[in-house]
Amino acid sequence: MCGIFAYLNHLTPKSREEIIVLLVNGLKRLEYRGYDSAGIAFDGPDGKDIMIVKKEGKVVALEDELLSLKDQLDYEEIQNSHVGIAHTRWATHGVPSSVNSHPQRSDKEQVFCVVHNGIVTNYKEVKAFLERKGYYFESETDTEAIVKLVHHIYTQHPNLLFRELVEQAIQQLEGAFALCFKSKLFPDECVATRRGSPLLVGIKSDTRLATDHIPILYSKDSIDGESFSLTEHRYIRGDKMSIPIPLPRQESTSEFHPLGDKEEVEYFFASDASAIIEHTNQVIYLEDDDVAAVRDG
C-alpha cells in the first residue's frame, strides 16, 4: 500500500517553497500507507524541466533532502500555475531505495513522470514489449513500465491529448492502480486515474465548478480491426500495440473548470481524504477506470 498526493494551483500564485511544503505535508498525512521511501516532482527554476527529488526512508528524510537543496531550487520563485506530484512508498516490486522510489520517470529527460499506488500484474509483459522498442529500465518497479508506456504511445501518436495518452495506456494494464501523471509537454496539466485502488479529487474554488463529460469506456475491438492481446482483453502483442476505440459512458467525471469570472482554483489528488480535508471539503471520488484531467484550470 502506498500513498499518492498531487497539487495543482491554477492562477493561484504560490512560491516554490509553499508548493513543496504543501506536497510534503500531504505525504505526512498519508505516511501510514507506506514509509520506506518518499519523493516529489515539481517544476524546476527554469520553468521547463521537471525536478524529481526522492529519498529512501520516512517522509522526514525527504524533507531534510529538500531543505538541503533550498539554495539550488529558488524557493522564492512564484508559480501562478503549477502541478506537483508526491508519493510515499511501501515496496511491492523492488527493494526500498531511491531509484525504486516514486515518482518514476519515462526517460532521462523526465518528459513524463507518475506516482502509483497498486500492483500491475502484467507489468513484465508490458516491460518486455517496451524493451523490444528500445526502452531501458533503471528501476525494479512495475510503475516504470506504466510511465514508459505513456511515453511510447506519445511517440506513436504525438497529437493525442495528455488525457488521451493515459486513457490508451491504462487499457493495456492488468491489476490495481491509482495514478497521477505530470509532463513537461503538458505544463500545468495533471491527469489522474484509478482501478481497484482509491483516489479522490479535492477542489478549492470561490466559484461553482462545471464538469465536462468525456467518454472513457473502451471497446475490445481495435481501430485497425485486428484483435490481439496478452490476455483475452488486452491489446499488446509482440512488437505492436493497438489503440482501443472509445465508447461513451454516462456519469464519468473527467475534466473540471470553474464557472464565472473567477478562474482561480486549486486541485488536490490523494489516496484518501486525510490529505485533503484541511484544504477543502469539495471532494469527488473517482470510480474504476475514470480518467480525471485538469487542463487550463
Question: What descriptive keywords fit this protein?
Answer:
single chain; alpha+beta; globular; Glutamine Phosphoribosylpyrophosphate, subunit 1, domain 1; about 300 residues; 6 helices; 20 strands; five-stranded antiparallel beta sheet
Blueprint of the fold:
Blueprint: E1 3-10, E2 14-15, H1 16-30, E3 37-43, E4 50-56, H2 59-68, H3 70-73, E5 78-79, E6 82-89, E7 104-105, E8 112-120, H4 123-132, H5 143-156, H6 162-170, E9 175-183, E10 190-195, E11 200-205, E12 209-213, E13 217-222, E14 236-237, E15 240-241, E16 244-247, E17 253-258, E18 265-270, E19 283-285, E20 291-294
Antiparallel strand pairs: 1-6, 1-18, 2-5, 3-4, 3-6, 7-8, 8-9, 9-10, 10-20, 11-18, 11-19, 12-17, 13-16, 14-15
Helix pairs in contact: 1-2, 4-5, 5-6
Domain Glutamine amidotransferase type-2: 2-297
InterPro entries: GATase_2_dom, GFAT_N, Ntn_hydrolases_N
Protein name: glutamine--fructose-6-phosphate transaminase (isomerizing)
Task: Kindly describe this structure.
Keywords: Aminotransferase, Coiled coil, Glutamine amidotransferase, Transferase. With 297 residues, the protein is α+β, with helices and mostly antiparallel strands. The chain has a single domain (3-294), classed as Glutamine Phosphoribosylpyrophosphate, subunit 1, domain 1 (4-Layer Sandwich), CATH 3.60.20. Helix content is 21%, strand content 35%. It has 6 helices and 20 strands. The protein has helices at residues 16-30, 59-68, 70-73, 123-132, 143-156, 162-170; strands at 3-10, 14-15, 37-43, 50-56, 78-79, 82-89, 104-105, 112-120, 175-183, 190-195, 200-205, 209-213, 217-222, 236-237, 240-241, 244-247, 253-258, 265-270, 283-285, 291-294. The strands form 6 sheets. The protein has a 7-stranded antiparallel beta sheet, covered by helices on one side. It has a 5-stranded antiparallel beta sheet with strand order 7-8-9-10-20. Strands 2-5 form a two-stranded antiparallel ribbon.
